[in-house]
Amino acid sequence: MTQSLPHPALAAADPELAALVGAEERLQADTLRLIPSENYVSTAVLEATGTVLQNKYSEGYAGRRYYEGQQNIDLVETLAVERAKAVFGVEHANVQPYSGSPANLAAYLAFARPGDTVMGMSLPMGGHLTHGWGVSATGTWFNGVQYGVRHDTARIDFDEVRDLARKERPKIIFCGGTAVPRTIDFAAFGEIAREVDAVLVADIAHIAGLVAGGAHPSPVPHADVISTTTHKTLRGPRGAMLMSRATHAKAIDKAVFPGLQGGPHNHTTAAIALALHEAAAPSFRDYAHAVVANAKALAEALLARGFDLVSGGTDNHLVLIDLTNKDVPGKVAAKALDRAGIVVNYNTVPFDPRKPFDPSGIRIGTPSLTSRGLGTDLMPQIAEWIDRGVTAAGKGDEEELAALRGEVAELMARYPAPGLPIAG
Predict the structure, then answer these.
(1) pLDDT at 31 over 80
(2) Is residue 232 flagged as an active site residue?
(3) Which of 252, 279, 306 is the last residue of a domain?
(4) What is the signed CA dihedral for 25, 30, 34, 35, rounded to 10 degrees?
(5) Binding residue numbers for (6S)-5,6,7,8-tetrahydrofolate
(6) Do 168 and 189 have their domain in common?
């Protein structure tokens, strides 16, 4: 049984909360975390988020604040901005957005007006809520039109994207998504956006770390604006960034502040600066390529066990599994795997006949396990566990799930997670 980290001040002030934090530490240490949007941050990033920078208000931008006492804060934010520009090779970076959805909303505020047509990938096909989907504010305030994927390949048909863009003439086109297992063709999107005079926003929240590490093509030559979270594959804190060409810098900055936000979260900005420093190291490039290698190896092992993978495999960190041929709904499988210590999320698949809250698929990824040091040699073992877990879910075999839980915990104990130096 693992032991949680000491938090003496927290434990003294609020034992109930300290116990919950400790329980989460043990859970993250003992389980195989396969949700592709999750990761482990370093101990240094954790420390940065808990500094006295938390205490300071800093409305405005470096050198142009509405509060005094910014001598150090300005340097912290400038450090984060310059590191973002260097890591991603961009002309402008804004590190103040609180999260990915507000960052995307800032792009709308900068380049569109309520009622304008915007275009993005359909949510059930792998897109994101904030790409103009109906239940999101972006689909309420704007006229959202969506492109999807082909029935036969589950990949984007760019002839259809171009035809839709020509017909609808959107002000903004979003590319990227939350369940896209293939390389995003930024060049093709850029060509279409230029043809219809649209602003291309590349949402790289899921793949930012892969782009930074050279394991996925960069959108920089093709996109007007790049939106990303700073966690996920980038292994930073829960925050976001907007990057752009210099010509769009003023519009982006004005949209973030004062358009949508007040003071930035300076402790998060510091942790972003640190994560970008880590991403600039040669070891991070090794990590990014290992994430992709692990995902491809896991996909091949799952295919060998008869799993139906959307688009037939993966090019990045993410594998989307359609469980229809296993006769187990995605939600049932995800909850059973969770009891087995294998953490995934249930997810719609393209053209899913089931409802979004009870879909046909599960979504898995390799960022977290790669951060723990697991390699391609262990991916067949993980595929076997997933297979056994899904089979047990269909049979209601709780004894098998309990046995899996023990096997998973035993392996995880051999691969301590960054930021979780928990003794066995």
Answers:
(1) yes
(2) yes
(3) 279
(4) -30
(5) 123, 127-129
(6) yes
